[in-house]
Amino acid sequence: MKRLYVGNLPYRATEPDLLAWFQQQGVNASNTTVMRDRFSNESRGFGFAEVEDSDVEHAVSACNGKQFMGRALVINEARPMEKSGGRRPPRENREERG
User: Fold this and answer.
1) What is the per-residue pLDDT for 9?
2) CA angle 29-55-33, nearest 5°?
3) How far apart are CA 57 and CA 21, in angstroms?
4) pLDDT of residue 42
5) Please, which residues have CB within 8 angstroms of residue 96's CB and are 6 or more apart in sequence?
6) Strand, helix or coil for residue 21
7) 18, 43, 74, 85: least buried by Cβ within 10 Å?
8) Using only C-alpha atoms, what is the Rg of the chain?
9) Which residues pair with 49 in a beta bridge?
10) Longest dimension (CA), the chain
11) Residue 81: what pLDDT?
């Protein structure tokens, strides 16, 4: 399985909405995730979808730039997370800012 990055998501979009949209586009996505703010639980405007390795090119070409709830989505293969795991280092390990 490979992950697709889904950008420019409408803030009201849910995982089931996104999964149904991919299926309407002829893409067999098995799982979708809408990234949310950890404090407010509001959408951050992007998410991910999992597709079979062999379907990645078809999914990107079939879906990139297509309208979803009034917004043109940005779809591409997700890049691996950085070694830091996407989290900031503890405050004591950050450099002081002048």
Assistant:
1) 97
2) 30
3) 17
4) 96
5) none
6) helix
7) 85
8) 16
9) 4, 32
10) 52
11) 74
* Token pair listed for 56: 């990645």
Low-confidence ranges of the chain (pLDDT < 50): 98
What's the distance, CA 5 to chain centroid?
Answer: 4
Q: Please name each of the domains of the chain with its CATH number.
A: 2-81 (3.30.70.330)
Check if the beta carbon of residue 45 is closer than 8 Å to that of residue 11. Answer: yes
Q: Give residue 67's pLDDT.
A: 97
Predicted pLDDT of residue 80? 84
Q: Which residues on neighbouring strands pair with residue 54, listed in sequence order?
A: none
CA–CA distance, 53 with 80 (Å, rounded to integer): 15
CB contact set of 93 (below 8 Å; sequence gap of 6+): none
pTM of the entire predicted model: 0.80
Residue 21's pLDDT is 97
pLDDT in the model for residue 70: 97
